Amino acid sequence: MTSLISLSKVTKSYKLGRDVEVSALRGIDLEIKQGEFVAIIGPSGSGKSTLMHIIGILDQPTKGLVKLEGSDVERLPEERLAELRN
Questions:
Q1: Domain span at 9
Q2: pLDDT of residue 57
Q3: What are 15-57's pLDDT values in tens digits?
Q4: pTM for this one?
Q5: 70, 3 contact by CB (below 8 A)
Q6: What values do phi and psi take at 44, rounded to 5?
Q7: How far apart are CA 38 and CA 6, in angstroms?
Q8: Number of domains in the chain
Q9: Are 59 and 50 in contact (CB under 8 A)?
């Protein structure tokens, strides 16, 4: 089956002030293939929404690789990203 979404070593951090950094995601690896159903579950504050924002191309990871249909999201033109979001 074709991989629709793949994440490799994805990390997302947020800065709070100058000295504090909060890690929302750390080293996430995920592959979702065509036809699969996936549930993202976890306690409040575990990074579910952050992960969904990255998968939905609404946010970018601090580190790591996100691919949609085999294409690196960072290399896609803005027009294509807009199409994928819709």
A1: 3-85
A2: 95
A3: 999 999 999 999 999 999 999 999 999 999 999 999 999 999 9
A4: 0.89
A5: yes
A6: -55, 135
A7: 13
A8: 1
A9: yes
